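G.,

No rush on this.
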Amino acid sequence: MDSLYLLIPIALVFCLVAIKLLLWAIGSGQYDDLDKEAWRILADDEPAPPAREQPEKPRASPGEEHD
């Protein structure tokens, strides 16, 4: 019986914290669009843009200095 005096207030505090977190999540928009994340997994990734080709510099022969 003595343990109930401890466990009931702990359970009430836990419930209040859980309700507070749920209301915070709803207020911050966590539950606005539930389908977007499910479809995002299935969507193809956008291909990377092609790298610009740069003209190759002529290679120096073994006797020439490098810049």
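When you get to it, here's the other one too:
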Amino acid sequence: MRRAPQASTNSRPKGDYSHRLTPRDPRDPLTVTVTYRGGSECWWEIRARGVVIRRPGHVALHDVLSHLSGGLET
């Protein structure tokens, strides 16, 4: 008899790296590399603090940098 699949015990979604980002002072300089990836939805790739974030063009820069500074969700 087959058993039903069990729920995952990991509460973090796949690709969540916020547990690796320690809070930092947003007034300190931060080196960020921004690459335009194009496409029909205008995608951007942001690299900073050892992580890569890919976001569509409608997301505010402030939201992305706040996420990188404090590990907050965008």
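DSSP finds one helix and three strands in the chain. Residues 32-74 form one domain.

Enjoy the weekend,
O.
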